[in-house]
Description:
It is globular and about 50 Å long. By secondary structure, it is an alpha+beta fold. The protein has three domains: 9-52, no CATH class; 59-123, 2,3-Dihydroxybiphenyl 1,2-Dioxygenase, domain 1 (Roll); 142-193, 2,3-Dihydroxybiphenyl 1,2-Dioxygenase, domain 1. The termini are far apart. The strands form three sheets. The chain has a four-stranded mixed beta sheet, sandwiched between helices. A four-stranded mixed beta sheet has the order 7-10-9-8, with no helix packed on it. A hairpin with a 3-residue loop joins β8 (169-171) and β9 (175-181). It is 14% helix and 30% strand.
Amino acid sequence: xxxxxxxxxxxxxxxxxxxxxxxxxxxxxxxxxxxxxxxxxxxxxxxxxxxxxxxxxxxxxxxxxxxxxxxxxxxxxxxxxxxxxxxxxxxxxxxxxxxxxxxxxxxxxxxxxxxxxxxxxxxxxxxxxxxxxxxxxxxxxxxxxxxxxxxxxxxxxxxxxxxxxxxxxxxxxxxxxxxxxxxxxxxxxxxxxxx
Length: 195
């Protein structure tokens, strides 16, 4: 007998806990969190198995103009923590390409928990993407950052000639949010926690 969706457990997955939460009926689809804010404590139970994910190491973004992308994220408040150029057989074996030469710039959030790796491939040349793709395009479309003052962040970005995709909007009593398109079509969501 196949397991129902609510019964499946994969290695290291956060699995809905079906007891102890007011307002839960056991329907998997009805569980929800608002931007990481738990509405019910202990709703998820962590399963432990060898080989499971421990943390998010970084998010990599391939760019053509490394300096412009780096300046954009530094303006938002990220700090540069390293630069390097990688090349050689070992890189090709990792990424599945031949003759790789790539410049890297590692940035991190001020709290040290979020890292962003900007990459410019010298060889082989980066493939063109759609830098004007809308937020609902398949694939990784945006990254999100917490800010302490969304209005100040938006003003700084507008001073650099960048515009919002939409507008600053209040989400319930939790966040003020907006999307901005940075260099090379990178979409960034800014989120200011309310209260």
